[in-house]
Target: Rhodopsin domain-containing protein
Amino acid sequence: MSTFTMVTPKLTPGQISRMDEDRSVSVIAVGTLFIVLCTVAIGLRFYARYNRRLGIELDDWSALAALLFVILYCVSCVIALPFGMGKHVWAVDPTRIWRILQIGLFNALIYFTTHFFIKLSILAFYKRIFTLRILWFRWCLIAIAIYNGGWFISSFFAALFQCYPPQYFWEQQNPALAPPPAGTCGAHNAPLVISTSALNTFGDILIFALPLAMLSKIQLNRANKLSLLGVFATGAFAIIAGIIRLTSTLSAVGLGADVTWITADIYMWTAVEGGVGLICACMPTIGPLLGLAGKKISGHVMEHTTRSQAHKVHGTPRSDAGSWNAKSMVRKSTVLSSSGSYSASSDENLELKMQSPRSIIRTDEFSVGRSSRKDDTSFETDVIIGTAITSPV
Model:
């Protein structure tokens, strides 16, 4: 009967003083934050599609699938904490290291799947909003889609079968197994993780750089250009998070590295990279919804200010025979034309006063959206607020 003997190296005074350090709280906080943010982003995305009477497209379903894997990744990171992930390697029970390896392989597969669906969502969105009559753009879109699919398939199966059978990846570190498991590992984990991460970041750069040339040909007002700038800034942050994750991975594979401690960095930046990437994929869809909400709030503030000024000038309206009470009505209309469809809604507030001089104070607020196709993703939404005082009736 074979026995397993664990030799524990002598700890230095510095290592002893850091035995109780733990990054579990940070891992839980980051995971929880991005579960909430991504869930809200997807919820707003689907609400925006419903609110604008648009169908659910491939980019929406891909974003929803990415959300499920973002949640799964964050939850699996928390599951790894009781086994020593986030603590210094010298403070971790060596007999439980295999559990961290098991969850680590599972997380790698989730990572590849998450980013595949995020990229698919963005590429499907590009296909829907940009014209494919421009030959170079169409071929670039196809090439990047093929690159994304090839990266996903090769990375997924290379990680899954880096050891054969796959469970040998973690079972070889489990001292409780007797006899020791049989298996082989054809690829070292470190180069595999580094190469797949670098290729993923390169794919992100390609995707976010592709539409830049197209944007110069699109006529947008300053507000919409700033909105798009915010989208690309968010995408740039996702790329930066991927680069930081890659540098953390390089630190983890160094000789004598504090692997379980550095792995917490890798897990957190992976959650940031996936979460920010998913939010960025949702911003073009939910942007008009947030902009409309802000304009409505601004319109109500202006309406309240106008009414207050009217009361100061003409006095408070009375309900006697010499005055009319304030009346309000809401009108909504839709106009169709050969160039597209136009939808308009107005909140019309009328204050009628029979005082001397008799006048009508009228405040109209219009929200106008223009669409040239049924699956409108235009950023063009205008709000017109007008106030007029007519001559005595």
